[in-house]
From TrEMBL:
Gene3D superfamilies: Hypothetical protein af1432
Alphabetical list of CDD domains matching this protein: HDc
InterPro entries: HD/PDEase_dom, HD_domain
Entry-linked Pfam families: HD (PF01966)
Designated name of the protein: HD domain-containing protein
Amino acid sequence: MAKVPTKVIAGVTVPDTPLIDKAYKFARENLEDYAFNHVVRSWLFGSFIGDQIPGLQGRDVEVHAIAALLHDMGWSKNPKLISKDKRFEVDGANVAREFLIREGNSAEWDTHRLQLAWDAIALHGTFSIAQHKEIEVQSCMMGVVSDFTGPEKSPGGVLTREVWDQVVKEYSRTGFKDGVIEEMCGLCRTKPETTYENFVSSFGTEYVNGYSAKGHRLLDVTLAIQE
């Protein structure tokens, strides 16, 4: 893609476009502090990792940035952004696509770029699939994962402790763990049908009284097959 302007945030060089700024502000307006700090850290970590790994250096950095910044819009407390019947990743992907159609230049945001952003968000928690997708999807996922695992377990081990500390100093991790647990449990309470086939169900099983995926798993469907 064409070279885009850059700026430095918390020691990490990132693309600097008006649309990325709008996505940043949109996330800030619609996410709680712990979630907003997480999506920004995910963007910064993913950007640093992507710039260190040769196979990811040719990515569309604007797609990556906007997908990372909006990847957890499915955690928003704004009821206008959240569905009653879709996985939180799909809610986030749909919000991002609508944002890009509304705020982006239609000549620049064709079907392919919109789909890249949608896929990056929808698959950010499905690591075993995302790692085989386009490099924008991979980079987004790697940044998200690294915010959970820490720099030493980052892809290729390229995320340094120095970079990690700089980013965390500016975008605090305070409340992150408890916020994630409560968000996942909330999904299990309010729309459990969206959680049975993915990792969210493990939070329901561990923490939510009365929650059970039994009867909804592929195993249960398979066992019920009549021969």
